Amino acid sequence: MGTSLHQTNVHKATVYTRWTLCSMPWLLLASLLWPLLAQLQRGGAPTSAVGLAAALTTIQGIGATTAVAYGIGRHILPVPLLLGIGALTVLQLALMPYLYDAEWLTGTQSIATLSVVLALPLAFALSPTADLRLYAGAALAETAVATTVSLALDPRMLLPVLTGTATGWAVIGLLMHSSVWFLAVMWQLDAARESQARLVVAEERLRFARDLHDVIGRNLSVIALKGELAARLTQHPKAQAEMVEVQRLAREMHKEIRDVVRNYRTTDLEAELDGARAVLEAAGTTCVIHHAPPTGGFGEKTQIALGWAVREAVTNVLRHSHATHCTITVDRRDGEGTQLQITNDGAMPVGDPGQGTGLDGLTQRLSPLGGDLCHGYGPKNTYRLTVRIPNGES
């Protein structure tokens, strides 16, 4: 119930933020364009020129809104769309001298407002996906062109145009980047919450399996032994038959419980990788996972062994290092089998992490599969653990 409510709230916040960001280009363009169109009409511009200005700005607004909607949550620039918006911006900047010479737009305020209107669509289109260097470069280039054109028209326009254009780029960049960052953090927290929930379920399954095996399994073993003893001691044929039946039922139930426990204790490699990422990043360690599951997946025994290896390796990273970066690679190679490699920095070469029982137990798990385990320190305080399992068991 709580998880479902949380996911609903995340969805609502995402939708609200998307709609807000997508509506902002239209709100700003409409508030600034309306006075400019009125100024064009007062300056004697024909209706066709006024309509063309409105149409070009509308096209840019559509492009900016599309770029914003596409860019939120993605890291790929919509290059064709950005090129189109940039071309329209250059075209409109080139028309500024014509509007000024025809006296359709006069006054410093009108030209400064027009320069801001021309900067808005490109700024909105770039801000969701462009990195800081690209965004700053585009802002400097567009501001330089706008100020150069205004300086050629009237030197008195330099400061208003420069201030208005630069401020527009800065405000939009700050607003959009902070909003996109907020969404990214919210999505990461939601993903971490889901990973935590899966880990809790996995831990509870293991606890239940252990308790089931330790308590009920032990008692059933005692019942089976008692039944066997009673069957040997009693001389009455009917009582002996009943004791044999008790013994059979107890052994059958014991076998069924072992099967249940075995299923509960089976590790899921995907869940272990997700859990490893969540645990390491919660501890301040950046975790990068390279894993492409083979067609048909891994064999059950291989998946269990790899899952335990991931769990044990992550435990060692947390206990025996001050790691800031950890890389986990799962690779299945033809002729070489399946290989799991976990490398972390910040290793502390004091003692041997392999002296405990964890890696020894992992080696015992790999032995029936023909697998092997190697680990050791590397250059620059790194530590690497490698698990190999032959193809025949994969």
Structural account:
With 394 residues, the chain is an alpha+beta fold. It has three domains: 2-189; 199-265; 269-393, Histidine kinase-like ATPase, C-terminal domain (Heat Shock Protein 90), CATH 3.30.565.10. It is built from ten helices and five strands. It has helices at residues 2-42, 47-71, 79-101, 108-126, 132-153, 158-233, 237-265, 269-282, 300-320, 357-366, and strands spanning 286-291, 325-333, 337-344, 372-378, 382-389. A five-stranded mixed beta sheet has the order 1-2-3-5-4. Helix 9 (300-320) links the parallel strand 1 and strand 2. The longest helix is centred in the middle third of the chain and has 76 residues, at 158-233. The relative contact order is 0.06. The model is unreliable at 1-6 (pLDDT under 50).
Counting structural domains, the number is: 3
How are the strands ordered across the major sheet? Answer: 1-2-3-5-4
Classification by helices and strands? alpha+beta
Q: What's the N-to-C terminus distance?
A: 39 Å
General form: elongated
Described by strand count, sense and barrel closure, the largest sheet is: 5 strands, mixed
Residue stretches low in confidence (pLDDT < 50, at least 5 long) are: 1-6
Rg estimate, integer Å:
34 Å
Question: Approximately how much beta-strand content do the residues carry?
Answer: 5-15%
Mean pLDDT: 77
Reading the helices and strands in chain order gives HHHHHHHHEHEEHEE
Overall number of strands: 5
Number of helices, where a helix is a run of at least 4 consecutive DSSP H or I residues: 10
Tell me roughly what share of residues is in helical segments: over 70%
